[in-house]
Amino acid sequence: RTVMEAIDPERKRAAEQAAAKAKEDVSRAARRAEKKGFGKSTKHFRISDTPAYITKWFRDNPDARKAIAAIVFAVCFSIGTSFLNRCWIMAKGMSEPSIMLRARNRDGSIVVLDDFRESYWWLRDNTPEDARVMAWWDYGYQINGLGNRTTVADGNTWNHEHIALLGKCLVSPELEGHHIVRHLADYVLVWTTRFAGFHGDDLAKAPHMARIAGSVYKDVHPTDFYVDEMGRPSDYMRQSLLYRLHSYGKAADVEPLEKYEEVFQSKNSMVRIWKVLEVDEESKEYVRSGANRQCDAGGWYCPGVYPEALEDVLKGKVDYQQ
After folding, report:
1. What is the Cα 12 distance to its own chain's centre?
2. What is the pLDDT of residues 172-210, one digit of tens each?
């Protein structure tokens, strides 16, 4: 016994009663908290308990489950419908013939643009069978297949240096380019689709042609070839053979060409074909006779070589390094 207990027992009882009352108050508060869902378990909540709490909440709230299910269904239905419509639009567009385009007139009527087939068939029906056609390589296979004419380049672009030479012909000034073209081609075909409202034509591809040419022939400066946002060509672009073939008669600042004669323009001005004047017949015969083919011993591999007249041009090339 303590000295205080021996001296004042009443004071001891009062202290014991106060402690008991405080304990009862704590117990009562804990019971109220447990009834409201904040029992002892919330004092030690763990992230891993989240799925269990969510499951309990869903189980205890059926109306919330229905509302969430309705929202998810609406979102999925909207996305699915949009995706389906897009698929139909893409399917219709991709099922169009690749050389024929469908467009609408201002009155909403549908018109089929048949300029490409028309141009290739013109080549087939109006040029000699041994005619050689220069065009950017994108159209090579179409000219081969529909026009039945030999092209300077096609989709088999593994020979980077050859495509660079083609690019050099097109981005060089007319007379400089003609010095090369007259040994390689009889006709030049140019896409001019911007005159029908489609701007992805050869003029749009000119900077790309210049980059390829400049990667092999260092006298070609790719950054000098462009058409600005106002549709104005740079000085080098304006002087280039491609721009003159493309825009003669369409742009006021293009003078008549000296070494090329226009022989065909498609119905909607999407394709123009020019005849090369002063073609070098000796170079043409060199290729036609097969003398340019250097075959191996078995005759299975026969890479061709350029006419001798182009040696001075080819000396200026630097083989492209991958």
Report:
1. 92
2. 999 999 999 999 999 999 999 999 888 889 999 999 999
pLDDT at residue number 40: 47
pTM (two decimals): 0.69
Which pLDDT value is given to residue 250? 92
CB 186 within 8 A of CB 133: yes
What DSSP letter does each residue of 228-245 carry, written as one string? -TTSPBPHHHHHBHHHHH
Residue 126: other Cβ atoms inside 10 A = 12
Judge whether 205 and 193 are in contact, CB under 8 Å: no
**C-beta of residue 127 within 8 angstroms of C-beta of residue 186:** yes
Helix (H) or strand (E) holding 170: helix 160-171
Distance CA 261, CA 126 (A): 15
115 closest CA partner among 275, 274, 265: 265
Task: Give the 3-state secondary structure of residue 251.
Answer: strand
Comparing 103 with 254, which gets the higher pLDDT? Answer: 254
Element holding 278 (H helix, E strand)? none
Rounded (10°) CA dihedral 164, 166, 169, 172? -40
Q: How far apart are CA 182 and CA 129, in angstroms?
A: 18
Among 211, 152, 182, which residue's Cα sits nearest to residue 310? Answer: 182
What is the C-alpha to C-alpha distance for residues 14 and 314, in angstroms, rounded to an integer? 115
Q: End-to-end alpha-carbon separation of the chain, Å? A: 100
- The DSSP H or E segment spanning 112 is strand 110-113
